[in-house]
Amino acid sequence: SQQGEEDPQALSIQEGENATMNCSYKTSINNLQWYRQNSGRGLVHLILIRSNEREKHSGRLRVTLDTSKKSSSLLITASRAADTASYFCATGRNTPLVFGKGTRLSVIA
Amino acid sequence: NAGVMQNPRHLVRRRGQEARLRCSPMKGHSHVYWYRQLPEEGLKFMVYLQKENIIDESGMPKERFSAEFPKEGPSILRIQQVVRGDSAAYFCASSPARAQYSGANVLTFGAGSRLTVL
Questions:
Q1: Which of the four pLDDT bands, split at 50, 70 and 90, describes residue A40?
Q2: Using CA atoms, how far apart are residues B70 and B73, in angstroms rounded to an integer?
Q3: Residue A24 contacts B where some CB pair is shorter than 8 Å
Q4: Contact status, residue B23 vs residue B85, Cβ threshold 8 Å
Q5: CA distance B89 to B82
Q6: Tens-place pLDDT, residues B29-50
Q7: Of A25, A83, B90, B107, whose CA is between 20 and 30 Å from A41?
Q8: Nearest C-alpha neighbor of A96 from the set B17, B3, B33, B37
Q9: Are strands A55-58 and A71-76 parallel, antiparallel or unpaired?
Q10: Number of Cβ within a 10 Å radius of residue A98
Q11: Closest-CA residue in chain A for B106?
Q12: Is B42 in Cβ contact with A88 (below 8 Å)?
C-alpha cells in the first residue's frame, strides 16, 4: 500500500505559533500532495511536491520531501484560527490517490 | 465556474433501502473519483471512472455497490439494500484528463454526501 500516515493525529497550538505535520509513506511516488478539510466539508488541495523536489513554498505553507526516508512535512507558519482543520497527505503512482487518516489541527485564538 | 457538485448533501435511509448519490464534475474535467470517509478516518478510495467507462473499482465492495458515469448526466454511486455500516460521508472528486491516473493530477473535491442509515 502507498498509504500516507500523518503524524501527529492531533495538534493543538496557539494562534501565531507554527504547526508542523509529518507524513510517511511506503513505496516510491511520483509526487506527494497535501489537502485540507474543514469540518463537514470536502478536501481542498493545498500543495503538490514532485519526487525530484526537496522543498516547496506557498504563502505560509512550506512542504519538504525526503524520498530516501519516504517522508514529508507540512509547516504552517504564523498560524491563524482559520487554519483549524484536518490535514491529509496523499500519494499515488499510476494509481488513484491514497489518503492517510490526517492530522487534526486546532489553532486557539 | 461551478466546482464539483454533489447531491444530496444529506440522505437518510432505512436499512434495506437504496441510496443514490450524484456527482457532477468540475467543468472541463472528465475523470471522476468516489471516496468514502468514516468518522475520524481518512478517505478510502472506492472507484475511478471516465464517461461510460470504469477505470478502477478496486476499492468498491463486491456486493450492493455500483457506480456509473454516463455519456450524459452526473456520475452516480448506488448503494442497494443499505446497512448501518454504510453510514458515512461519500466524496466525489474530479480531475482533467491529463494522465490516466490521478497520481499526476490534483483532485477537486465536492462537499460530500452524508448518508445516515437508520
A1: confident
A2: 6
A3: no
A4: no
A5: 14
A6: 989 999 999 887 889 999 999 9
A7: A25
A8: B33
A9: unpaired
A10: 24
A11: A45
A12: yes
